[in-house]
Amino acid sequence: MSSFWLSKRIPFFWKPRSKIQDDVTRPLISKVTTRNGTQYHATDISTESQTNSSSSNHDEQTKLSSWTFPCIKTHSSSDLTVFLLKYVLFTSNFLFSVLGLATLGLGFWGLMNKESFAQEKLDGLGTDPMLLFVFLGVLLSLLCLTGCVGALRENYCLLRTFSATLLVLVAAQVLMAIVAYSLQDWITELLRSAMLMAMTRYQDDLDLRFITDEIQVGLQCCGVENYRDWEVNQYFNCSSPGVQACGVPPSCCVDPLENGTVWNSQCGLRAQQMDEFSAQSVIFLGGCLGSISRWISLHSEVIGIVTAALLGVQILTLVITTRLLDRIQWNTIQAWQRKHDLNDAQSSLGPK
What we know:
Layout: H1 2-9, E1 29-35, E2 38-44, H2 56-66, E3 67-70, H3 76-113, H4 130-153, H5 156-182, H6 184-200, H7 206-219, E4 257-258, E5 262-263, H8 276-279, H9 288-298, H10 300-348
Helix pairs in contact: 3-4, 3-10, 4-5, 5-10
């Protein structure tokens, strides 16, 4: 934009002059003259046939027309770099913005579908897993939209905010990975407590019930350490007067579907009263905590590759943003320098 403004206000030295000059009678000898530390292109248009009767006004016009603006280098490669950086950053942030909005919509859909905002359910809203989707959706959407607008408009403030927030998130993820690797025993105990809490509230919280059933069916496990852990639930406890006493959920069953079509809710009745040899043909004996540990060990390479890829994308985005910020700052300084040099040139060529 600044180059276009300069081309409108000041003629370039390669543009033709209004009067055609003969190469024989009026040769143009271009040279470089330095004034106040700034280089200028000068043209000596003096000729041997020029008489001493020229007026002072004519000499002043000749002097002004012979000088042009300071030497300005074109940066086509720099402009191309800025263009590529800007639109690569815009495209990546736009895609992640769509992902964030989809996550946010999923979270709100889950909350509305379960009527979590009803008066009688507000007490348990804080532990609703759908709030995690809402939080992640809001964070991802705001962050990526900031990057989108900042890249598209080349807004230094928005890009600086985006890069600083992204740097904090990358540092937090690296710190969490280090903590998770260093405190494996503590995380195991935390996971055990969370699973026992989910088993205790199995009938009361539909979200925890869904998560527990998916884990037990997917990993073919039952309870935390073994199937007898379901005694912590008041309905499956052997002292309970209900029909589910000493039982386990249907998701613990080896074949929870009756005839392969209908969910058999009574397949785990009285399973805790069976010995392990009799129970192994009906339910899964092993606990889910060990199954989760084995699943992580088995897929550790895939988990590492995915984690490294996600972290690498964020670091690459941070590098691109930093590079774009440097280019924007460099262009701003160059535009200011050209304007300053132009003002100095005009003031030095003005009437004394």
